[in-house]
Each structure stands twice: as structure tokens, then as C-alpha cells.
Amino acid sequence: MQLSTRYNHKDIEDKWYxxxxxxxxxxxxxxxxxxxxxxxxxxxxxxGSLHLGHALDITLQDxxxxxxxxxxxxxxxxxxxxxxxxxxxxxVEEELSKEGIHRTQIGHEAFLERMQxxxxxxxxxxxxxxxRLGASCDWSRERFTMDEICSRAVIKFFVxxxxxxxxxxxxxLINWCPRCSTAISDIExxxxxxxxxxxxxxxxxxxxxxxxxxxxxxxTMLGDTALAVHPEDGRYKSLKGKYAILPLIGRIxxxxxxxxxxxxxxxxxxxxxxxxxxxxxxISQRHNLDLISVVGVDxxxxxxxxxxxxxxxVLEAREKVxxxxxxxxxxxxxxxxxYSPGRCSRCDxxxxxxxxxxxxxxxxxxxxxxIEKVRDGEIIFIPEKWTKVYLDWMENLKDxxxxxxxxxxxxxxAWICEPCGELLVQQTEPIxxxxxxxxxxxxxxxxxxxxxxxxxxxxxxxHWPSDTEDLKYFYPTTVLVTGYDIITFWVSRMIMSGLELxxxxxxxxxxxxxxxxxxxxxxxxxxxxxxxxxxxxxDEYGTDALRFTLSSLNTLGGQDITLRKPYxxxxxxxxxxxxxxxxxxxxxxKENNGEDLFQSSSNLDIFDQFILxxxxxxxxxxxxxxxxxxxxxxxxxxxxxxxxxxxxxxxxIAKLKKETADTSSILRYVLKTILVMLHxxxxxITEHIFHNLYPEEKVPLIKQKWVKEIxxxxxxxSINKVSYIFDAVTALRxxxxxxxxKPDKKISVILxxxxxxxxxxxxxxxPVINALAGVQELKITCExxxxxxxxxxxxxxxxxxxxxxxGLVDLNEEKNRLSEMLLKLREDLNKIQKDLANQMFIExxxxxTVEDYKLKAMDLEKQxxxxxxxxxxxxxxxxxxxxxxxxxxx
RNA sequence: GGGCGGAUAGUUCAGCGGGAGAACGCUUGCCUUACACGCAAGAAGUCACAGGUUCGAAUCCUGUUCCGCCCACCA
Length: 890
What we know:
Elements: H1 9-22, E1 37-40, E2 44-45, H2 52-70, E3 75-78, E4 80-82, H3 85-98, H4 103-132, E5 143-144, H5 148-163, E6 167-177, E7 182-184, E8 189-191, E9 194-205, E10 210-215, E11 226-229, E12 243-245, E13 252-257, E14 269-272, H6 278-287, H7 314-327, E15 331-339, E16 342-344, E17 352-361, H8 368-375, E18 380-382, H9 385-395, E19 400-401, E20 403-404, E21 414-417, E22 423-425, E23 441-443, E24 447-448, H10 450-454, H11 457-460, H12 469-474, E25 477-483, H13 487-502, E26 507-513, E27 516-517, H14 534-541, H15 543-553, E28 561-562, H16 565-588, H17 606-627, H18 631-656, H19 661-678, H20 683-693, H21 716-738, E29 747-752, H22 756-773, E30 775-780, E31 791-796, E32 799-804, H23 811-837, H24 839-844, H25 847-873, H26 886-889
Parallel strand pairs: 1-3, 2-4, 4-5, 11-13, 18-26, 25-26, 27-28, 29-30
Antiparallel strand pairs: 6-7, 6-17, 8-16, 9-10, 9-12, 9-15, 11-14, 12-13, 17-19, 20-24, 21-22, 21-23, 29-32, 31-32
The chain binds one RNA strand through strand 10, strand 14, helix 6, strand 15 and helix 9.
């Protein structure tokens, strides 16, 4: 294998996934007694393609999985898909409607066949997309929420809850989506601000007089069964117990007093329409009012609404009601009005509150442990702020409407005896009615809310309720990774059902990440047309670059991520950098027994010590960040080290002394460590390079040992010395740049250090200084009787740097430049001196801080003195220097 | 109405009690044979506003203003 000059992801990415999957590297190695690391993927909807949210989700999970696998833990990532009830059915219905067919025309069975076909088609697409992202999940354990194993769990859950009395059926006011033609739960309703009109309508009283009522939905008055006022409302005290006459219809309406009426809203009198409004429904329950449904499941006015309106759409009925009321002179006011009616979260259709027979789960019966385990820290949310969101949510739960009038989903395991009406709920199909012995049993047609099955996902994938080896070994799982948008839909329900059914929290950690937004920070949505396809991005920049981008931007605070192309380009550039540095290292070094550990650590020079010390610190830091789920800093630390310390400095220095064995080993060792540390994020390129670096190695990178620490003793002094040398090099390059000296033009330099440390370090570093700063003649001197005339100057710590620039330096300009420099330094020095002169500071501040301030002040003072000295001497005679007796001086 | 975030360089963000950081962009110079998807040197910020706590505040507290999100029975 040879590495080409430019990194091209297309050449390598396909190959390695095959390699890993074929080599069974994704399967967990079960070790008895060892706690495994387990993630169960948030099941992906079979409704379409992956979006960037999935890409982020999958990347973060894969990082954790690969990291733990390399750490040697038995590691399992279970993949799978969700049948996505309404969403999937909608997609297929749309497909059908393009063929001019409605599902009712082809019937239940044929429609489900169509759904299955769709499901298989999309499963394949989505699975291949997940693989394309590099996800190292165990495909042998792949599950689907509607497969036999998961379905069994769903039935079991339902029956058990029913038997405990936690599930009930009844006619209640629910949210109905007329377009999807099904009930939906409260959290599937989205409130959206809408411009409407608030009408004031005049109702006559039975015994004379009139009262005005405010409403934004006048058509619902057809179903009014009462009026209500607040009990303390002085204006309407006399109305209590009287009757009003419903305009247009003529029905007699009792007037009731109820605490829930807000006297400050509208006129203070409410029309009560219990069958179409949640507040009114509550009032009706308290006052035993009639319920009259005037809107049907089709969204049309029913017969109850009267002949004139029956069959009209809600909005048509509204117009007609208004015009009729107007002709009777009963509209007192029409005011523009901003309100927030509910819309279906799946299709945006206006929700109709309707009376309907549905199934409900009393979540309050099973939530106790789910609250306690989170409060007690047995389940930990990261970032921590989501704990409160979760707990607040859990404290205020209402019964969950779990039935849906769809065809695609888990059928409710309930049968109704046709002759006697007996309801049977059980796991297996009954033969006879136990009450009347009839065999005419009809299975309930409703299906369950999708989330009812995903609530069981962390253990249904392991075949719960069967007590399988997998369930015993892999459950509870370790961490759940997901976005904050489904804490209420999914996370809370998994915790409840997990604790209720298995007595164990389904996971230890809930890692919540942000949402991926477009370049302008907007949510990605089809209607805005700003959805970016992760696969297209992977195609353009490479999967590694995409993963690198997403996880770099994923900060610990869980900020939403604004994905911008420049960052993708940067990531791709980083891949190229990694690629080329590796190419260089491979070309100048040789593999020795697969182990490149430097042999004679005692003989390492300061640069070798420096890079190893930095590596050691970076490895520790990166480990710490990753353990804390701080993905962005884990990557940042490694990227900084690799690009700056390793490539920009160490490799350049290594070029000066290619032939030494230590340097060559260190080059390889550091590279290998970086490959290991970055493999979880960018698996493809690192695996590829690894095989080129170690052609003889049998164990691929995916199974290489994770690096927790570097087995060397860190050398603080090497860091001090080398960063001082680097500062000197930078200062010299700065002068060259300032005076427009061509980079390849060699310069003559005089260095004037002030102490032994500086002197010795400069001597040690002089070959590097010469090479990296392009110095031809370097004098290091402690004697400086007169300063040179044609020089440009810099000061690094206590060292003056003079570059001989005959003819290039304008004396005045140089003076100005140095004066400015001096000004800044003095400013800094003043600040620090002020603090040091402050008795309170000395007494109260941390002693270490005071010490640091003192050192810093000394440093600054040195520099200030140096520059002052130089300014004074500027323009004097050329310097005579000796560089022999410095050693004795300090 | 309640709750939670955010406001730091032109842009996107990190920092969250001791000298203002990164990336991209920008300016200048370099094709120095690993890399121009690169190298080198730079410029760039009253850390939203007003008070307070502290020896010391971008960082903690209070209030204000803008932006975003979540929750709530706006008839």
C-alpha cells in the first residue's frame, strides 16, 4: 500500500467498513464478571433517509462504543428501526394517493402488505446509511419495533398494565387529527400562534335580558350545553341558576358558576361546549352537563349541529354561523385575536378536540420509581440541566392516550364479544367468551402509539420478557444518547416502563445533545428547504470529516450546532494534514517489530522530551474530556497537539536530524498514539494509516489498546526550555517578516540572555534556532558593551535579540516600534504591580497567585529594562561581542 | 403565565473567580520536496446594559433589554 499525496476519502472509506464487519469486530466479546459497555440505538424511523441529527447521534454513540471497545470492555451497540406509526403510514398513504388510491379502497390486509414492502425497502436504505457513517454496531442483534420479539414485549406490557388496572378504556375528550384520522396524545399536539377573530355573541336569557359571550370558535356553539361565570364575579351574581337560550338552535342552557372561569377574559361569561373543548369538558364534569358532539371524526359538522350546518366543514360552518348571527344582530364585536390552536405534529392539521372511545395508561401509577431513580442519581442526565426538565415533566403527567385509529402498528390485544359485549384483554387469541361462551369475538382494531413500543426498546431488543443470556448480561444498558426533543416522548417512558417491568433503570447515563441547525441557525425542515443530507456531505468531504465536524461542534453544554461548510472544509483539511504527516513519517522511518518504543530514554534531547511530555499531558487531558462526554474538547486537545506541536514544530525539528533512531521511533510512537486516540472519531482514515504504518501488524486499529497514559516521566524543564526556544524562533521570524526579509534569506543574529537558564537553553537550541529561523550567524553573548547600529530588536523573556539589518532599518521607525512595545509591557507591568502593592491582595489572595504575580512582574520588568536600554543605545556604534566567558558569569 | 438556555474578535463558538481564547474569515510574505486542503508573521474584542458581592468579575448575585426553546385548560 502506498499513500497518495492528497487524501481522498473515496479511496478508503468503503473498504474498511467491510473489513471490520467481515472480521466480526463489532461483536461483543463476552467476559463473565466484567460489566459490559452497552448502547441501544435510538431506533430510527423507517420513514425516510437519515438527517444530520441522526448523523450526530450516531457519531457520538460510535465514539463511545469504539472508545470502550478499545479499552477492552465487552462492548455492544444494538442497532434497530422504529415502525413510526403515523409517520410511516402517512408516507405510504401519500405514495398511494399519487396512484389515486386511498387505503380504504385496497383494505386492511393489502395496505399492510404495502407497508411491509415499504418497511423493507427503507430498512435497507437506512441500514446502509448507518453503515456508511461508520457505525460499529452489532448487526446480528438488529431489531425492529414491530418484529416478533419486540411485539411480544409490547403485548406483555399491555396485558400486564391492564391486569394491574393501569390501562382503561373509555369515552373521553381527546385530540383528534381529522387528516390522520386518529387520536393523538397531548404531546403530539403543537401549539402555533395564529391570527383569529374573537367574537362577542349575544345570548338571550330565558326570563328576559341578554348576556354577551366571547369565543374564537363560534361554530362550536352548536354544541353548547351551558354558560359559565366565575362564582365571585359581582357582575353576574344574579345569573347563577338561571337559563339562557342558545341562539340559532334554541336550546335552553343552564348558567353555572365555576372557579376555572377567568373573569378578566372576554366578557367573563363562557359558553360551555364540553364535547369540543378541554376546559369546557372539565366544567361539564363538575356540573353534570350534557355532552353534545357537533364535529365528527371527519372534521365535518354532525347531525347534532342541526340540518343547516350538518355536513359542512368546520370553517364553512363558522362562516354560516356568523352570518346568521349577524342577521339576528347578535354579533357585538369582532376583534383580531392572536391565539394558539393545536396542530398535529405530524401533518400540521388543526386538531379537533373530540369525544371518542380510547385506551389510556395511568402513567401516574408507574412513575414513582422513575422520579426517584433520577432524583437519587441512579440515572444521570448529562448535561445536568435536563434533570430538572425531566422531573418537572414527570411531576405533571396526565394519563397517556395510547390507542391510535391507524392500520400500521401493534394491534391492541383486546377482543370484544359481539353477543354480550364482554371485553377480553389477553396475550393469546381467545376462542370463546368466558361469560357467554360465544365464539364471535372481534379483535379491537385500534393500534398502539408508536412510543408505547419504543418505551420498551432497551430491553425488548434483548428478548424481554424471556430471561435470555443477552438480557442478563447486557441489560441494564450503559448510556442513552439522544436529542433533547424527545426527553418527554421517549426517555421518560423508557425509564418508567424499564423500572416497572424489569425493576432496573434501563440505562445509567442519559447523554443529551443539541439539535443540528443550518448555517443561519435555523432548524432544518423540509418546508424551509434547508435540510442538508449527511450522506451528500459525507460524499463531498468524507465521512471522517463529517464525523469530526459534528463531534467537534458538540460542546459539553449541549448547545445546538450550527453546521457551516467552512467547518467541514477545515475538518477535511485536518484529514489531509493527518494523511500527509503520516505519509512523511512512514517515508522516513522504519517499522521495528511493530513496537516503536524509543529505547534509550536517558539520551533523549529536550525536543524529544518536550514532545513526549506534551503527548503525555494531552493524552491525560483527552481521556478526561472523553470520560466526561466532552466531545468537542477531547478532539480539540488532540487536534491542537497534533497540528501545532507535532507537525509544525516536532516534525520540522526531526527533519534536521532524521538519522537518529530515537527521533524516528518517537515520530512513529506519537503518530500511533494519535491514531489510537482519534480512531473513535475518525475511524476510516486512522485505520487506513495504521495499516500503512504497521504493515506487519495483525491486530487492526479498531482492536488496538486504548492509551490511558504515556509510560514516561514528564519533563517540565523540557517544556520550559523548548517553549523558550520556540519563542525565540518566533521572535526572529517576526523580525524577518516585519522587515520584509525573504524567508530563505539567512540573517545574522546576536542573542543577549540574562541568566544561566537562558544562556544554556540557547546554546542547546541553537541548531534548531538557526534552522527554523534561517540564521546564518548566531552569536550568544553575555557581554554587551555597545549595541549594534543596524539592528532590529526583539525581547524574549530576559533575552535581547538583535538582527543585523544593514541598510534595512530606519532608526526612527525602529524606535517607535520599540516604544510601542514598551508601552504595552509597562501597562501590563503596572497592573500587576498595583495588585502587588495592595495589602489586601497580599493577605487575601491565594499564595500561589501572589507568587505567580511576583514572577510575572519580574519577567516583565526584565523586558521593560531591556527595551529601555535598547532604545537609549539605538544608533550607537556597532557592537563588539565575545561569547566565551558567559558560563563563568552566572 | 411558568420554566430553561443564549448575548465574548467580521462569523461560529469555547472559557465560567486571578494577565481576553480557538476555528474560519481578513492582512502580509512564502510552491522552504509530507501537506498551498500547506507554511510563516500579523491585525482584530468597553466579554449586551445597569447595579452589587469580592483584594480581584467575561466568570458569582440582582435587575433591565434583546434572541431562542420548552411547558400551560388564551373561552
